[in-house]
Specification:
This protein has 281 residues and is an alpha/beta fold. It has a single domain, classed as Metallo-beta-lactamase, Chain A, CATH 3.60.15. It contains ten helices and 14 strands. The strands form two sheets. It has a seven-stranded mixed β-sheet with strand order 6-5-4-3-2-1-14. Strands 7-8-9-10-11-12-13 form a seven-stranded mixed β-sheet, with helices on one face. The longest helix is centred in the last third of the chain and has 14 residues. The protein is globular.
């Protein structure tokens, strides 16, 4: 399995997961042209993408959705609430073509509309060939945000961004993954000292906002194990965070909880594409 980040942050989120059998885009928060430009060095085009997974409906995650939904062979995995928001928006703004494309994909079973299991916060697992995708319930100011846990041959990649917290029911699922893509959005002091409106600050630090550096590192301290070899700090605020603050907070929290990280590679993501990371063979 290989993983490449095309962009991570409030200006746009999009990444590529490659297995032996599948090519999966996670979010489409940059333009179609940018996605094509990122695929080109990998000797790929949009026609090579099998699935598009959408976390939620904010523009930095669905900017190219209207263009990608036109691709005839592209399948989509999306929560029921997010799809309803997108279709409601298309209807309100008279985006007839978007509605037609969504309707066609629903009729041809090319959209998997994930729904929570009754009386729980959890979702059914999706199995595609040898790949298992656990849908993770998240908590953000969106209709029905989700994250993902990818598993193949007893190897796991956890993808969580855009959430105010991680529910305790998820902890056994995400323990000791081989790789984590985890939000480390802001430093609270920088955020509160910024010029952002006060209501925006409260939104970000709230239970349906974004994970701070300290909360992210605490979560990692309780999640990483002897199998973990890669951690990517994702959705880093350009205005209210600094790489050095992320690194210092990681060292501080890991020391406090006696976390052994000597065999782990740490990457701080941004708006520029990363290299292709080999998660496991």
């Amino acid at each position: 399995m290989k993983y490449t980040v095309f962009s991570s942050g409030s200006a746009g989120n999009c990444s590529l997961l490659k297995t032996n059998e599948l090519n999966i885009l996670i979010d489409a928060g940059i333009s179609k042209k940018q996605i094509e430009e990122c695929l080109s060095p990998l000797n790929m085009s949009l026609n090579d993408i099998n699935y598009l997974l959408i976390t939620h409906e904010h523009i930095d995650h669905i900017r190219a959705f209207s263009q990608l939904i036109k691709l005839p062979n592209l399948k989509v995995i999306i929560s029921k609430g997010t799809l309803k928001w997108i279709t409601d928006y298309a209807r309100e703004h008279n985006k007839i073509k978007d509605l037609e494309n969504i309707s066609y994909k629903l009729q041809t079973n090319m959209i998997t509309e994930v729904k929570r299991i009754d009386d729980t916060i959890m979702y059914p697992t999706i199995n595609i060939n040898t790949l298992s995708i656990s849908i993770l319930p998240l908590f953000h100011d969106a209709r029905e945000p989700i994250g993902f846990l990818f598993e193949e041959d007893n190897k796991k990649l956890c993808y969580i961004t855009d959430t105010g917290y991680v529910h305790s029911d998820l902890m056994p699922l995400i323990y000791n993954c081989d790789a984590y893509v985890l939000e480390s959005n802001h430093d609270p002091e920088l955020l509160m000292a910024s010029d952002r409106p006060y209501y925006t600050k409260l939104r970000i630090i709230g239970d349906h906002g974004h994970i701070s550096n300290e909360d992210s590192m605490y979560l990692l301290s309780k999640s990483i194990g002897d199998k973990t070899n890669l951690v990517m700090h994702a959705h880093v605020s350009q205005e209210c965070n600094l790489n050095i603050l992320i690194e210092n907070k990681r060292k501080e929290v890991f020391k406090q909880y006696n976390v052994d990280d000597k065999n782990i590679d740490f990457v701080i993501l941004g708006l520029a594409p990363t290299k292709e990371y080999l998660i496991w063979k």
